[in-house]
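Researcher: Please predict.
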Amino acid sequence: MLQSDGQRYIVTRYASDTDQHLRRHNLPLATYRSLSEFRHQVRRFLRYSEDAARAHGIEPQQHQLLLAIKGLPKGKTPTIRELAGRLQIKHHSTVDLIDRLEEAGRIVRQPAMSDRRQVLIRLTPEGERILRNLSVEHQIELTKVGPKLMRALAAAIK
């Protein structure tokens, strides 16, 4: 059971025999250590990402929004609903992020051509510039920390 904003959600999924076995038995210390190391490596990269965003004059969630807009999967449109889902935040929080980025001249709202009631979010040249610079820096960092992150993930899922 997970809690989010005071609400309870029951997380269900199809459980395999292995899942049932793990739930009934104690885990070895090595499992805790590998999960801890994986979380540590993920957190180190996220901390790098947060610091890099701030160094470029934007907040980490603003960087995530710029990346979500530019990196949407083919066939998806950059609506507020879609972006909120990609960022895993509430609709009103997404609107707040969009408002701040629009005010700073990094994104614009445009009506959709197919349905003028629908609003699409687009990057401005300034938003593109910031995102490109951050993405290059992130790619460089991933080449450095990627092997450790991959080893930690492999150890956590074996």
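Model: The mean pLDDT is 90.
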